[in-house]
Amino acid sequence: MVFRSMLATVMALCLTVPAQAVEQRSLNNGNLILEDIPPIPEDIINDLNRYQNVRSASFQGWSQDGNSLYITTRFGDVSQIHRVDKAGGSRHQLTFFDEPIGSVVMRPKHNQLAFTMDRGGNEFAQIFLLDLTSGEHWMISDGESRNDALLWNESGTRLAYQSTRRNGRSNDIWMAEFRGDDRQPKHTLVHAANDGSWWGPAAFSAGDDYLLMQQYTSSTQSAVHLKNLKTGKAQRLAGDDKQPSRNYTAGFNANYDGIYLLTDRFGEFTQLTHMSLSDGQESVITEDINWDISGGDMSSDRQTLAFSANVDGLTQVYLLDTASHQYRRLENLPMGLVGGLAFSPDDKRLAMSINTRQTATDVFVSDLQGDLKRWTYSEVGGLDTERFIEPELIRYDSFDGLQVPAFVYKPHGEGPFPVVISIHGGPESQYRPGFSSTLQMWLQKLGVAVIAPNVRGSSGYGKDYVAMDNGFKREDSVKDIGALLDWIATQPDLDQQRVAVIGGSYGGYMVLASAVHYSDRLKAAVNVVGISNFVTFLKNTQDYRRDLRRVEYGDERDPKMHDFLQRISPNNNVDKIKVPMFVVQGENDPRVPVTEAEQIVKALRESDNLVWYMNALNEGHGYRKKENRDVYSQAIVLFFQQHLLK
């Protein structure tokens, strides 16, 4: 892959006469290629140093005795597994790989854990076992397929997981069975996904007779199935292809004769329900919480279920008594984003990862009465996070009267401030106001305001909202950016003459599309691993995700949809782009292939548009290695200095 890209660059330089000369440099042992990007001034490197040395820690699991926690954090270039033995205690590093750790699941009744790790960001993660006594690790997957969604049974003798190992493209469910030899478990196919959807294991029943399975088709359609592992027979419990709805499982109840579901079949948002397995009767539990409910964790005695609610982008945590179905909010948690909920082995404490405006993600433990203790204190580069600016949540009117939520950060002072519009990816994702040293760096070092909109198609605001940009309605979300530009023009402390857009993945497409439609109102644009042509994207994205993306963007094999996608694709409208563009890519990206970046860069150069191009040969869909992220964030500051602030 690297050879192909380098050869293509050499051939292009030698055999053609480009519209503009390309100055190319390489950094980080030749892994980071920079084209037409000026050298980063030393003062920018020094000025940003503290912002680039912020760490975070994410909870991964409890030790068998409940006295220690396992976390992932970064001390070198990438995140690795560490152990913490007490609140505020030292972090003991257990893995030392060149690649970041992916998923981590503790193996019950064994002093081991399973983890995933890919190579160079290619997302073809392999499964490894780590012996916590000896520190030894070994691979148990095939070394070729894509693997994730790890789930142990209660005895630690079976590991269910999602994998493409059958044919390289189908997202099937597999089982690794351990019978004495942990190094060579027996792998068997549990459920074959032959419809292009994603399947993953969700929960084992008592005795491993049944397996709850999750099926994901799109952001608005998912289903829950129950598989009899003895007979091989499966039945659908929730979800209907004729009437799409979101359905996720939160596990079995205490007697294993019912399950908890998260579903939007009874309203606009996902609600927590209970379904009887004997007669299918279902009752809504969280009817009075008018926000999306997310799953958490079930206590080992199955008496308490922890779940969370996404309330306008912030997290509230609740504890449900599974006998009475009464629940209460877990108080004393800071306002922020909470994830990774997991009960201790004795069910008396709940571990979690918390991210707030002033604290990067760190690990906390609460008792069930709300007494919260902080277990990790990640470094913040010596920054005074008390000075970090808090956003204001606003809602502005779009072209059709839709109210679009957005988080607005303004630097200290009177203004008018230049503006950076930051557009999230997904598209079925959501900007949520957590800790961001990068965003605070822009506010304090560049003096810009930052606005993060949740345009139509974003999650968190109900099932109708998330579906508003599907198919032929794709550009309605771009019009939401136009409406935001209108709103900026009404704000006396914002400078409508100096506005930039930045976004990654689908957000990268939004950046390119905004440049197509609103070049006369923009000063600069940054496209990070973005889609430049929906047809070539759908043809070249990895096989295992193509059908999933067709549900969202449209099926390019349909002539009408093909023509529509070609018509709205930014690389077919380059003549309308009149702003300086910074394109950032990872060579090994399996989601948005490097060809999407190469073709938009080529087209922009041929139209004499100013383009900076950065490509990391050891990264995939975004930069995970600190040395690459540092150069990227420095280059962003330089780009804004030269093309936004002037």
What can you see in these coordinates?
By secondary structure, the chain is of the alpha+beta class. It is 19% helix and 35% strand. The protein contains eleven helices and 38 strands. A ten-stranded mixed sheet has the order 1-2-38-37-36-35-33-34-32-31, with helices on both faces. A hairpin with a 4-residue loop joins strand 4 (69-74) and strand 5. It starts with a helix and ends with a helix.
Structure in a nutshell:
By secondary structure, the protein is of the alpha+beta class.
What is the element layout, followed by pairings?
Elements: H1 2-15, E1 24-27, E2 32-35, H2 42-48, E3 57-62, E4 69-74, E5 79-84, E6 91-93, E7 104-107, E8 112-117, E9 126-131, E10 137-139, E11 147-152, E12 158-163, E13 172-177, E14 186-191, E15 198-204, E16 210-218, E17 221-228, E18 234-238, E19 247-252, E20 258-263, E21 271-276, E22 282-284, E23 292-298, E24 304-311, E25 314-321, E26 327-329, E27 337-343, E28 349-355, E29 362-367, E30 372-374, E31 392-397, E32 403-409, E33 417-423, H3 437-446, E34 449-453, H4 463-466, H5 474-489, E35 494-504, H6 506-518, E36 524-528, H7 534-540, H8 543-553, H9 559-568, E37 581-586, H10 594-606, E38 611-616, H11 626-643
Parallel strand pairs: 33-34, 33-35, 35-36, 36-37, 37-38
Antiparallel strand pairs: 1-2, 2-38, 3-4, 4-5, 5-6, 7-8, 8-9, 9-10, 11-12, 12-13, 13-14, 15-16, 16-17, 17-18, 19-20, 20-21, 21-22, 23-24, 24-25, 25-26, 27-28, 28-29, 29-30, 31-32, 32-34
